[in-house]
Structures are given as C-alpha cells and as structure tokens.
Design brief:
Chain lengths: 329, 254, 100
C-alpha cells in the first residue's frame, strides 16, 4: 500500500513469554482496544515500526503529488484543472498530517525528509510509473486511490491515536478522489475512439502496478503478524487485494473496458474473482529503485527541497530578527 | 475605434479573465515543487481561486460576445495573439522569489481593481467582481506579508527578492497604462480610471517595499503589449501546454 | 541535495485549534510548521480550512503545551471515578414527578 514494506525489528511475532511486565501491560491495552498516545510508554520496536510506516505513508503522499501534478497544466477544461489541482493539493495536505503524526513519536519532519531525499526511506512503488496520457489521471484516481482508500479506511482504527486521527481526516477528504478518477474514465470510455483507446491503454498499464500496491503476498510478508498484533495493520495484503479486485472488475465492466488479465474469472464457489499471477520481480525491482520514474520522482523532490532552502531560511531569519527586536524593546 | 458599451464589457471580462487564467496556470506549475509543504498548499489555494475567477470572467466575456463560446472555448481554443492578459502574469519562474514578486505586483493592483469594479455601473461586472474581491484581498495580504518577510529575511532571501523586483518591475506598469478601451470603460463608469488607481496602488507598494528593505527601480521603461495581444515568447509555450488536449482532440468532451 | 542537510534551524511545530462554527469551542485539529505565530496562523487557514471547516483559528507553539504524565493517570483521575453521586443518573426521580 502507501507503506508497502514496513519492516518490524524482528520477523518473529513476540509471544507473551518474550515480554517484560511493562510490555504485557501495553499489549493488554492494545488487546482491549485502548488507543496509545504519544506520551504513553511503548516498546521501542512499536515506536520504530510506526515511524517507518507513517513516514513511508507520508512520503508516498508527497511523491504521489508528482505523477498527477504532471497533468495539472494540461488538464483539458477549467473545471478538470481545478478538480485535479484541489486533489493533488489534498495529497500535500495528507502528507503534512501524516508527518505531524510521526513527529509525535520524536522524529522531526526535516529528518524524515532527509531520509526520503537520500533514498534511505521508501515510498509506494506505484508513483514510479509515468503518467503518459490524460487517461492516466483518471486511472490513478480510480485504481490507485481506490486501492489506497481500501487500506486507509481500516487504519482509522489503528492503535496509535495520532495516526488514527490523521487517517480520519485523510479518509474524509479523500472520498472525492476516487470518484473524480472514475468520472474521468467514464467520460473517456463514452467518448471518441481515441479517448476510449486512451482509457483502455491507461487501464492496461495501471492495473498490475495497482495490485502490487497492496504489498507482497501474505506468505512473503514476514512482518505482518507483528504489525497486526500491534494494531497498526488490520487486514492482510492478500485479503485487501482480493477485495479490491472484486470491487473493481464490475466497475471496469460498466466502463466497457477490459482488465488486462487473461486468467481473470469469476469463481462461483469462492464468490470471488480468481486472477492471474503478479510479477513480483517487477515489484521488487521498482522498490529497489529501478522503476521507470524513480530517478525523476526523487530528483524532483530533491530539487524542490534544495531550491526552496533560501525561502525556509529567509522566513526563519525574519522571525528571529523580530523576536530579537521585541526583546530589545 | 470606439466600442459600444456591451463590447467594452466583453473586453474587460476577457482581460480580467485572461489575467487570472494565465497567472493561475503559472502558479499551478508549482504544485508538488514548492519550497515547503505549507507553501505548496497555500500556492495551490491561490491558483484555485484564480482559475475559478477566470471561469467566471471568461463565461461573461463569452456571453457578451454572443457567439456561443464557453469559458473553456475561450481558454483552450484561442491563439496567443488573441490573449489579452498583461505581460506580467505570463512571466516564467526562474525561482520562487519571482513567483512571489509577480504575485504581489499583480495582487496589489488586482485587489484594488476588484474593489472598484464591485461598484461598476454594469451589473454583470459588479457581480463577478464581488465574487473575486475577497479572495484577491487575501492574496494581497499574504503576498505583501511574504515580500516584507523575505525582503527583510536572510542575505540570500533579500538578494533574491531584490533581483525579482528588478526583473519584474518593468512589467508592472502595463497594469496602470490605459488604452482606448480602458478610457472608454472609465468614461462609462464601468471600470475605474486606471491612472487614478495606479496612484493608490503605488503608495501601498511603497510602504510594503519600504518595510521589506527593497529598492524600487526608477526610470525603467514599461514593458507592455499584452492587452493588445503582443506577448512575450513565454506565452506561446504556456498555451501550447495548456491547450494540448483540446487542440489535439477537436470537439471531444472531457 | 545540499538542501536536505541545510535544515540547521527548522521551523517550529504549532498546534492548530479551529472553531467549526459560531457558538462552539475551538477544537484541536492537527499541527503544522511555521517560522512564527503569524505565518502559522496563515498556514493553518490554508492547510486546515480548505473545505470551509472553520470560523476562527488558534495556533499554539507545540513546545508551550504542558501535559499530564500518563504514569500519574491513576492518582490524577481514578479518584473522580468513585464520586458517582455527581452524576444525575445516581438519583432516582419518582415517575409522578416527571422531568427534573
């Protein structure tokens, strides 16, 4: 998802016998559904994992501005331009809320930013794919935001209070994002031949990367069990992926578009769609930095940060001077 | 050439709309690239206001024209020579200091202009102006504040703001120079007298630049031509990007 | 990339409180960074009221907030739990009396 590969310090689920008294009491609180707040005691591993997860999530929102941001200046109508701008602006807001939630755990936003820019921190693989046509903006809203919402809704109930509250705000604001994407696809699918082709091409390119957003299959997700015990992950990767496929196939049918998977078929016994094998080699390759746009995305963020240094320092310098003046007066 | 009042209303709507559209387009280029998250969000807010205002003005211009052209038709299907925005708003952004300076030079005029247009004798102009005036007042307040802070801030921020002022000041004068249409609009009390407006704008700017510690260039020639469609080369590229989909898929719905 | 390490003096963190509508109290909505109080207020308007969520904003430096220690929870808050007579539901009102 937006935090696809969150490593916990150990790949083994901690059992009660591993825990000290304090940690047992902490686990009791989690099991009782009590939220953990910044000043509460928490195991170091819980804190570290949360910082990793929330900052990855935040980085994904920030880098996630770029693929769609590409098309703001080329949006085909004034209304589409305004909607897309508002949507991408929301992503910046969501990154901001999430960084603030992570900061309650004792890391600074600037340090998290430095980790992103140096390549130490990860962000979602999905944003390393290029947006080649206007239909990609529709496909991202429909598929990528659709997948993101599926993951984010349960996070509103996660065990860490500031993260859960940030997600409440994010989910409330994001509810229009998927709809605007689907709306773009709907208009294109009912448009000219070229527009229909554009829509199909976008679905062809975004389908598999969207399925990869949910992260590695459950049998390869060695850190999931601990995250679930900690209440910072609710559903397994495969469960969410299945839910997404089941939800999206009828929407694609409605649009009259074809999902690029010859193995996709309704399974009446399971009451689910069966779908083909995901190319995990591609997933790990993109995560490792070899996706089509990794260098451009990170390059754009590095550039924004370094080119903006004078602005951040200038405003700080002014307020420092004002403070000194007030003291002197 | 003296235009009749209705045609004049169309010219004014087009000019106001083109200014808002082109500046909104320029600002939206920053989305995802601004110096800090909070600024990214604030810049997008201003761009959104301007694009909304552009829609309203261009819709009015299209209605007055009576040829059935929508705001989108006017935005996406006119060539550079038909755009009537001032040169200031189309100037590109070598750095964020230029963006902020361009914004303040425009806002300081725009907010004042809209305040006057609210009292226009032409009801449709007054109506659109009323929708935009509060937004523009906020834009002016914000950009003036940033000019002061960054002009006064660090050595580098001061130098960048001064360089931006030096580069952009020659373009500010076009806002104040009335052409025949502006004069006729003022005579009909549809729009204010631009020369008179210029005086008020100049004194407000003097205070802001003074507090910012920035020196206003003197004796610079005014760079103008936008109102009559004689633009800088930058506009052609801006429009090529903005209009690509409408141009390459004629008649398609989006 | 030089900028990533040039954060020698990062902007401080501010807590944002918004009054959603006239007549109700300000409520904590989140936080943000700004060089000083005035810009924090301005940023709060842009970040937290994009959908018309507010009619008034407070910003407070995060560092200025003093909070109770979770370890003191029992001694601070448990005592109030036993004063159940402070709640109206403690008292039985005869049905004939109606609303009281």
């Amino acid at each position: 998802m937006y935090a696809q590969e969150v490593k916990t310090p150990s790949s083994r689920l901690r059992s009660r016998s591993d825990m000290c008294e304090q940690e047992c009491a902490f686990q009791d609180k989690l099991d009782a559904g009590t939220k953990i707040e910044p000043k509460d005691w928490m195991p170091d591993a819980y804190r570290k994992t949360l910082v990793r997860q929330i900052s990855q999530h935040a980085h994904s929102e920030i880098v996630g501005q770029l693929p769609e941001g590409n098309w703001i200046t080329r949006a085909p109508t004034l209304e589409r331009k305004a909607i897309l701008l508002a949507k991408v602006q929301d992503e910046a807001g969501h990154g901001l809320y999430l960084y603030c939630a992570a900061e309650t755990l004792g890391v600074s936003r600037d340090d998290m930013t430095a980790d992103l820019l140096s390549g130490r921190a990860k962000y979602s693989s999905i944003f390393n794919y290029p947006t080649l046509t206007w239909a990609d903006v529709g496909a991202i809203g429909w598929l990528v935001d659709g997948a993101a919402i599926m993951n984010q809704v349960p996070l509103q109930r996660c065990s860490y209070g500031p993260y859960a509250r940030a997600m409440v705000r994010v989910c409330k604001e994001e509810s229009f994002h998927q709809r605007q994407g689907f709306d773009i696809m709907r208009v294109l699918a009912n448009g000219t031949e070229a527009q229909r082709a554009m829509a199909q091409d976008a679905l062809d390119r975004w389908w598999w990367p969207s399925l990869m957003m949910f992260g590695p299959p459950d049998d390869a997700s060695v850190h999931s069990a601990q995250s679930m015990a900690w209440g910072i992950k609710q559903d397994s990767n495969d469960e969410l992926r299945q839910k997404f496929v089941d939800q999206t196939v009828p929407q694609s049918d409605f649009l009259g578009l074809k999902i690029p998977d010859p193995d996709l078929i309704w399974n009446d016994d399971e009451q689910h769609y069966d779908f083909g094998a995901i190319d995990w080699h591609e997933f790990y390759d993109v995560i490792a930095g070899n996706g089509p746009c990794n260098a451009e995305r990170l390059g754009a963020r590095c550039n924004a940060w370094s080119e903006g240094a004078w602005y951040r320092e200038g405003l700080k310098a002014h307020s420092d001077k004002q403070r000194l003046d007030r003291k002197a007066a | 050439m003296v235009l009749a009042d209705p045609a004049l209303v169309g010219v004014l709507g087009l000019r106001m709309g083109d200014n808002a559209l082109i500046l909104g387009q320029r600002l939206s280029e920053w989305c995802g690239h601004a110096p800090v998250l909070e600024e990214d969000i604030a810049t997008a807010n201003i761009a959104l206001d301007l694009i909304g205002q552009a829609s309203n003005w261009l819709k009015l211009a299209g209605e007055v024209e009576g040829g059935g052209r929508s705001a989108d038709d006017l935005a996406f299907l006119r060539d550079a020579r038909e755009f009537t925005n001032v040169l200031l708003v189309e100037q590109p952004d070598p750095d964020f200091a230029h963006t902020l300076m361009r914004q303040y030079l425009f806002d300081s005029w725009h907010a004042e202009m809209l305040d006057r247009l609210v009292d226009s004798t032409e009801a449709r102009i007054a109506e659109v102006a009323a929708k935009s005036a509060k937004e523009a007042a906020y834009h002016r307040r914000r950009s003036a504040d940033l000019i002061v802070r960054l002009g006064d801030g660090s050595e580098e921020s001061h130098a960048r703001m001064q360089a931006a002022l030096d580069a952009l000041y020659p373009f500010a004068g076009e806002l104040d120079q009335p052409d025949d249409c502006d004069k006729a609009l003022a005579a009909a009390a549809i729009a204010p007298d631009l020369g008179e407006l210029a005086g008020e704008v100049a004194s407000a700017r003097t205070i802001v630049f003074g507090r910012a510690g920035l020196s206003v260039p003197t004796d610079v020639p005014v760079r103008s031509g936008g109102k009559s469609g004689l633009h800088s080369e930058a506009l052609g590229y801006l429009l090529a990007e903005m209009q690509i989909l409408q141009r390459s898929h004629p008649g398609a719905k989006w | 990339m030089s900028g990533a390490s040039s954060s020698a003096s990062p902007w401080p963190l501010w807590e944002v409180f918004i009054r959603g509508q006239a007549g109700i109290s300000h409520r904590h909505v989140g936080s943000l960074h700004a060089a000083d109080a005035e810009t924090a207020l301005c940023n709060a308007r842009d970040v937290y009221t994009r959908r018309g969520e507010g009619v008034s904003i407070w910003v407070v430096p995060s560092a200025a907030i003093l909070a109770t220690d979770p370890d003191d929870h029992d001694q601070l808050f448990d005592a109030a739990q036993s004063k159940i007579y402070r709640h109206p539901s403690f008292f039985e009102v005869p049905e004939e009396i109606g609303h009281m």
